[in-house]
Amino acid sequence: MKAGKRDLASNGTRTHASTDTSTLAGNRPGQILYWNFFIGGHLSASVPVRLVERTPAGQLVWMETGTPMWRTALPRGTTHLRDIAPHERPAEGYPLVTGRWPMGSALFYQPTGAAHSVLWLFGRRQKFRGWYVNLERRVHHGDHIDIADHELDINVAPDRTWQWKDEESFAEKTGHPAYWSAEEAVAIRTEGVRVARLAEAGTFPFDGSWCDFRPPSTWRTPPRPPVPRRPLL
After folding, report:
1. Is the pLDDT of residue 161 over 50?
2. Which one, of 145, 143, 142, lies nearest residue 111 by Cα?
3. Which pLDDT band holds residue 229 (cuts at 50, 70, 90)?
4. Helix, strand, coil % (nearest 5) of the chain?
5. What distance in Å separates the CA atoms of residue 78 and residue 71, rounded to the nearest whole number?
6. Rounded distance, CA 134 to CA 6, Å?
7. What span, in angstroms and rounded, lies between the C-alpha atoms of 219 and 143?
8. Are 21 and 68 contacting, i.e. CB atoms less than 8 angstroms apart?
9. Using CA atoms, how far apart are residues 154 and 164, in angstroms rounded to an integer?
10. β 144-156/162-165 pair status
11. CA nearest 191: which of 63, 29, 12, 71?
12. pLDDT tens digit string along 46-97?
């Protein structure tokens, strides 16, 4: 990450560790990668992102609002895959339909060997709105970044105050074989506490670096990716 701005989250729990990004092929800023988001083993969304920077400590990727993507075609009346119990989902996974990334633009920091990502969230006119800590298990397959979501997340305001998100649904999913055991839940929460302490201390990635990030003007919105390789992890 930026020189002098490194307090890298690389010593966290290895129970849900990610692939070492330093072993991945290519390190070209602007390279298109594919962020594949899974909930309970089922694909929820596949969105192309652009590589900003990659070092042995981790990588930064940029996700642009409105990017063409694939998403799960959910049953009528259902707004999110996480609201459907695993035993009610088709064994082969739901069909996928085209769409566009509906959330705001974000810069993702994916530290090597850590079970989380940190997002810089940007609103209209690229105004920084705060950070979002996504607790996850992350595995890299070439240009694909497969994310197994851990449900529990953290919102961090620009003043670095923070609060847990989705604690109730995290507790409800704990112990189900499609998600995580009680022991793993402790490791997931511990990972969150460790990152929250970084926010409280104002150390990287919460030290003010990258809050003014602007993607190069030469970057165009990535095209929709190929149909995802698999709807299931």
Report:
1. yes
2. 145
3. confident
4. 15, 35, 45
5. 13
6. 20
7. 18
8. no
9. 5
10. antiparallel
11. 12
12. 999 999 999 999 999 999 999 999 999 999 999 999 999 999 999 999 999 9
Q: Which residue has the tokens 């490791």?
A: 187
125: confidence class by pLDDT, cuts 50, 70, 90: confident
pLDDT band at 9 (very low <50, low <70, confident <90, very high): very low
pTM of the predicted model, to two decimals?
A: 0.90
Residue 10 amino acid letter? S
Amino acid (one-letter) located at 228: P
Question: Under DSSP, is residue 133 helix (H, G, I), strand (E, B) or coil?
Answer: strand
pLDDT higher than 80, residue 3:
no
Indicate the average pLDDT of the chain: 90
Length of the chain: 233
CA distances from 74 to 66, 71, 97, 117, 231 (A): 20, 9, 10, 26, 13
Which distant-in-sequence residues (6+ apart) come within 8 Å of 96 by Cβ?
A: 43, 46, 70, 71, 72, 73, 227, 228, 231
Terminal Cα-to-Cα distance of the chain (whole angstroms): 30
Which residues is 51 bridged to in the sheet? 61
Residue with tokens 């670096």: 209
Distance CA 156, CA 174 (A): 24
> Given phi > 0 = left and psi -120 to 50 = alpha, else beta, which region is 125?
left
Token readout for 38 is 């899974």
Residues 171-209: tens digit of each pLDDT:
999 999 999 999 999 999 999 999 999 999 999 999 999
